[in-house]
Specification:
With 496 residues, the protein is an alpha/beta fold. The longest helix has 24 residues. The chain starts with 7 loop residues before the first helix and ends with a helix. A six-stranded parallel sheet has the order 2-3-4-5-6-7. A six-stranded mixed sheet has the order 9-14-13-12-10-11, sandwiched between helices. Strands 1-8 form a two-stranded parallel sheet. The protein folds into two domains: 331 residues, Glycoside hydrolase, family 3, N-terminal domain (TIM Barrel, Alpha-Beta Barrel), CATH 3.20.20.300; 136 residues, Rossmann fold (3-Layer(aba) Sandwich).
């Protein structure tokens, strides 16, 4: 390596946000922090509890005081900090259903204070997508809703709240992942809306986030022909530099969605997508959800250096990206200092929000008697999870209902396992059918129909998007978190 390129590995490391395996920082991460690495990202595999995360981040900060510690904590179905027990907050869709921006801001501020106390400085949230396509397999309840104006005002409130709690917010997935039928973890979604529609719908929440002072924006691996007919947003200079920077006036850090996702790697490769993203205007490269070792980080660092040497990536662009990451690091240091005395909100602010989000629909001819006063039988139908939701994260209402009605039994069926009469195990006990996005799953609708035919007095509880309301009594929680399960159980039993 010549003296003229000797600084490039440090610049390249500065723009990476790698993950790692373990609940303590591996030696390679500590070493890299002394060699220019500016950020790391934590996943559920790195979390035991907040005390352990605080110790982990203190170790990182001992190596580099201004290190950016990121996490993907949406405080809903997608949770990392509470992945073992489920989130104590209800998530965006439930907050949108309540439509109280002060509550949204309070929930986000409480989360910010908790994350800050654990040493986290950047959160890959809020999800600013408008879930305008009910068939969307990856967004759903992660969005505040289907109305652009509602999503915009709650996105802004969430940004204000989180950042008041001392943690930088990151609005995602620009320019909007809501109107898709494809999960970008697996393939490249295509957004077919024209520019007028994009301005009125997808872009509105991001404009609100920028106006609210959001510190970071995460790109979506999306092909949006009205903006760029050739390149995914993450790799598009037209979208990142032309639209987000020049037109929308965003001056913070542009972070890529996980660069190992197939929506970009299938065509451009792991290293190729990284270099193209930086050239297009991205400032930080998120990696490590699926590729989390030193070799993966080194592959990208070396590819960035080689791209600068070859002229594929201008050194000025890399230096600009590293400078923006440094500016965000400085913001996080100042926020930690200013927010060192920031207090958590009311201990039950998440549960309060979850309770307010429950909606009950009863047919005029309903014979179901609520509250339930004796042990029930709960049947939970389990769809395939998208990869954003951790496989380890619990959900359902059987547990909290059993706490309130001892003797309650619970069974859970995935698609291949559903019996002809799913509710047969109830006998004469009250029957509760628990679904997630019933409208998206043919097998689930058929199973619920059979169960309701046999037991028309069964209660249906929807933990996802309540696009399809069925049953004599229907409860919608707008979230599958621990808090929302508790709130549903309280309504079913009249506990509140």
């Amino acid at each position: 390596m010549t003296t003229t390129t000797g600084h490039l590995p440090s610049l390249a490391a500065a723009v990476l946000q790698p993950g790692f395996v373990g609940t303590t920082p591996p030696l390679w991460v500590c070493r890299w922090l002394g060699e220019g690495l500016g950020s790391v990202v934590l996943f559920a595999r790195n979390v035991v509890d907040t005390e352990q995360v605080a110790a982990l981040t203190a170790t990182l900060r001992a190596e580099r005081p201004d290190v950016i510690v990121a996490i993907d904590e949406e405080a809903g179905d997608v949770t990392r900090l509470e992945s073992v027990h489920g989130s104590s907050r209800p998530g965006n869709f439930a907050l949108g259903a309540v439509d109280d921006t002060e509550l949204t801001e309070a929930v986000a501020r409480d989360l910010g204070a908790e994350l800050a106390a654990a040493g986290v400085t950047l959160n890959y949230a809020p999800d600013a997508d408008v879930n305008s396509n009910p068939a969307n397999p990856v967004i759903g309840v992660r969005s505040f809703g289907a109305d652009p104006a509602l999503v915009a005002r709650h996105t802004a409130a969430w940004v204000r709240g989180l950042q008041a709690g001392g943690v930088a917010a990151c609005a995602k997935h620009f320019p909007g992942h809501g109107d898709t039928r494809v999960d970008s973890h697996h393939d490249l979604p295509r957004i077919t809306a024209d520019r007028d529609r994009l301005d009125a719908c997808e872009l509105a929440p991001f404009r609100a986030a920028v106006a609210a002072g959001v510190q970071a924006v995460m790109t979506g691996h999306l092909l949006v022909p009205a903006l760029d007919p050739y390149l995914p947003a993450t790799l598009s200079q037209r979208i990142l530099s032309g639209l987000l920077r020049d037109e929308m006036g965003f001056s913070g850090v542009v972070v890529t969605d996980a660069v190992e996702m197939r929506a970009v790697t299938d065509q451009y490769g792991f290293a190729g997508a990284t270099v193209r993203a930086l050239a297009a205007g991205a400032d930080a490269i998120c990696i490590g959800g699926e590729r989390a070792g030193e070799q993966d980080a080194r592959e990208l660092r070396d590819a960035i250096v080689a791209a600068v040497v070859s002229g594929e990536l201008p050194e000025e662009r890399l230096a600009e990206a590293a400078k923006r990451v440094g500016q965000l690091a400085a913001w996080t240091v100042a926020a930690r200092t200013a927010g060192s005395a920031a207090a958590r909100g009311a201990a039950d602010v998440g549960l309060v929000a979850a309770r307010r989000a429950v909606r009950v629909t009863a047919a005029s001819t309903a014979t179901v008697a609520l509250p339930l006063t004796r042990a029930a039988h709960v049947v939970e139908f389990e769809p395939l999870r998208n990869i954003a939701i951790g496989a380890e994260t619990p959900w359902g209402i059987g547990g909290p209902l059993g706490e309130l009605l001892p003797g309650t039994s619970t069974v859970r069926y995935a698609e291949p396992d559903v019996p002809e009469d799913p509710g047969a195990g109830a006998g004469t006990r009250p029957l509760v059918l628990v679904v997630r996005d019933l409208h998206r799953h043919d097998w689930m609708r058929a199973a619920v129909h059979r169960a309701l035919t046999a037991r028309p007095d069964a209660v249906v509880v929807e933990l996802g998007v309540p696009e399809l309301v069925t049953g004599a009594v229907h409860l919608a929680t707008h979230s599958a978190t621990r808090a929302s399960g508790r709130a549903a159980a309280e309504v079913l039993t009249g506990a509140r």
